[in-house]
Target: Cadherin 5
Amino acid sequence: MMARFQLWMAGLITTLFLFVVIAQDSGLPAVVPERHDSVDIVRKESHPVLLRQKREWIWNSLYVEEEKPAPVPYKIGKLRSNKAVEVKKFRIEGEGANTIFTVDEKGDLFVRKSLDREEKASYNLTARMLDGNNKLIEDAGEFVVQVTDINDNSPIFPRTYNGSILERSMKGTTVVKVSATDADDPSTPNGELRYSLTSPGDTSSFEIDSTTGVISCKINTLDRESQSQYVLVVKAQDMRGMASGSTATTSVTIVIDDINDNLASFTKKTYSIEVPENHKLNENIGTLELKDEDEIKNKKPTFTIQSGYKDAFSIQLNNDKDGNLLLKKPLDYETRSNYVFIIEVNDDVRFPADNSKTALTRAEVTLIVVDVDEPPVF
Model:
């Protein structure tokens, strides 16, 4: 049997609701009984309000705002039986019964302590009503005290963040996601966070989704050679970002990763190299230094020697991605004392090169053969 006692709640409402409950079976034609119920909302002194259904009590929850000062017990509701028997004693059992919550001989429910929703959001209790012979007047009834949230916690970022993105990435490319927490109720504005970029960090090259915290590229012209790192400041604000919300900030360091977007360039237009005529074959006779702003791992220069000299010379990349000129055929000062030829350098860049207008991709090499005294031949 369901308990038939009334639960009075703190508040001050003077409204009468009339509603209709309709049930319909699946027959043809359908049988539709109609039932009219009412919910009485009655003024009781300055704050108690009775909310009950005439057939059964329908309110099984009381609400207490967290952090409400409680230097003395304060009333949150009232228990009352539907039966005509005089109630001599009210008893409550369950979570916080007789410590946090108490009931007096009139059935008035009190809170004796300040509550913290983040510590415990609800308390399940059972109410019993006894007559003068200490017997139950009706079955026990269960009810819940819900602790309502207030904005008493600020957002918290667990750490700082790091991200990276390739230079020249498309606008909208995701970089990193940040996330803050808030101990307040996430189903209320108190715990709903909004993210934004704020000073003194860079706000021109990146943007953040206000609800997800995803940071993405705002432009498509990131250039590592111009700026290799950005530091952003992200703000999280509760109350859905309203000015009254509490805030927290964290930093996000974004590294711009290199791609091959610069042409290899000779450091000068002409090179003059002196080589003794007895120089060993396949050994370096001179280095053609290159200038390339890209990181060494992304440098991909290739060399082309002018036609007619490919049999005599070759170029090999060294560890610095410069070109070592190698001798492939023996030299003889008495036969030829110098060589003049053109070398071109090419670079497989992924995008239009930053230095396409200034790069020196052709150089003239003058090789001077130095005479070496040779012993007479008999």
User: Anything to note?
Assistant: Residues 1-5, 8-58 have pLDDT under 50 and may be disordered. The chain has three domains: 5-148, 161-257, 265-370. The chain has no helices and 27 strands. The CA atoms of residues 92 and 127 lie 5 Å apart.
